Amino acid sequence: MSEYGHVEPRDSFNESLVRNVHPPDWVNPEPTTRYNLVVLGAGTAGLVTAAGAAGLGARVALVERHLLGGDCLNVGCVPSKCLIRASRAMADVRDAGLFGVRVPDGADVDFAAVMERMRRLRSGISDHDSASRFRSLGVDVFLGEARFTGRDTVEANGKTLRFGKACIATGARAVCPPIEGLDAAGFLTNETVFSLTQRPGRLAVLGAGPLGCELAQAFHRLGSKVTIIEMAPQLLSREDPDAAALIVEAFRRDGIDVRLNTKVKRVTRIGSEKQILADVDGQEAVTPVDEILVGAGRQPNVDGLGLEAAGVAYDPRHGVVVSDRLRTSNPKIYAAGDVCLKYKFTHTADAAARIVIQNALFWGRKKLSTLTIPWCTYTDPEIAHVGLYERDARERDIALDTFVRRFDDVDRAVADGETDGLLKIHVKKGTDRIVGATIVARHAGEMISEITLAIVGKVGLGTIASVIHPYPTQAEAIKQAADAYNRTRLSPFVKKVFQRLMAWRR
Ligand SMILES: Cc1cc2nc3c(=O)[nH]c(=O)nc-3n(C[C@H](O)[C@H](O)[C@H](O)COP(=O)(O)OP(=O)(O)OC[C@H]3O[C@@H](n4cnc5c(N)ncnc54)[C@H](O)[C@@H]3O)c2cc1C
Fold first, then answer.
1. Most exposed residue of 26, 273, 463, 470, measured as fewest CB within 10 angstroms of its CB?
2. What is the rounded distance in angstroms from the CA atom of residue 160 to the CA atom of residue 198?
3. Over the stretch 452-479, which tens digit does the pLDDT of each residue have?
């Protein structure tokens, strides 16, 4: 992506994307006297807030400076998952021999075609987020920069919008780490990497968070030689250590050079080559690459928004300060999505938007803290989580019983050749109340919803044991963990009573 409203490369797919989400000939409407709701930013949080509020009869203005759809559609979830799917196709062909399937001439990746497929699918999906669709929903769509000019006014492209309530949904952007020489050498972020048309021969990925891990594996499988460099001792440092270890194993089996405990000190550009000087346990090493992708975290978009004029408290690192009900320090103004939330996901932006609609427009008292939020990193295998980790429970002094299943004990995973998986379900000690779970499996993101449903619906692990799961499925791992829980209910005393009963009936 380059300047606002432009997308590289200029091909028919990107042209149709831009026609949908930043139409070059768009004429901003004349503002109404006063809006019920003005929404700043049209990513997931802004679009859901605007569409929901307009659907309920509110007069809504939505202001977007770049592309409707925000990060998720344009430079996040959608393009990354398209690339990941292509990279899985490549890995399946690569591994076909393990299944007795011969691919005589081997497999080859047409990188330009992979990227073109992504652009085609993205432009198709963009219909849903288009400016004209939102206009037809009754939303006044303004293209241009939004900025508060007072406690109840926003300026959008020279026009003043008065509001009863406003929602800040301006999202976040890539953090650029302060590494000597990095700026001068040049680097990619999620805003530019999906514009590539040529595969980088050697790619360094700085940061092994979800974004870094997903793209490192995808690019490696698509033919780049990838080195992933992480300062922390664990890849995906927030995840369960046993689960993260399985991802490292999978990466190394793929041939990715995984460097943990490694701090980049300097980057130097020599001709077209970028040399990364890094420190591992006091030893310096130089890695020459063609491109660097930075995945070192996200920082909220709060600059230039006029938050001072609106009386909205914020912090440049953590974003707009909100209450549990997503209200800012100005009672007329709410916030949703990456600009204010710790968990920066599309589904949390969506859930937060729904809270804002209720609380801002309908005297609702919905709280963010009541949400159960699952998440998934789409590596292969995927790693999905919901609720507490063991370390969270320790910090809060909650005693746990943990039920673990390895996927080499799950028939379907064996048949699928996908045994490098793991399921951990935590229950409150001595009860079957599920408080957290982590799954590593090829489709862990699909499987975590069963556990999320159980947590939200207060369905205990004992009840899951009585739920019939089709055989063979990988989700049977969840039933196996539930069966393991049920076995713990068979105390020595009850077992002895049963044995006596059986002996008597023989
Ligand atoms: C590579 C990558 C992959 C991801 N994959 C996933 C995934 O698989 N699953 C998942 O759940 N999440 C994923 N995410 C995270 C997800 O994209 C974000 O959590 C989500 O987009 C947040 O939505 P938002 O509406 O808060 O912000 P954004 O989508 O960032 O939207 C904010 C919008 O506000 C606009 N804006 C900013 N300032 C102004 C201003 N002053 N005036 C007008 N407009 C403004 C911006 O241009 C932008 O369009 C991924 C992110 C990245 C980067």
1. 470
2. 44
3. 999 999 999 999 999 999 999 999 999 9
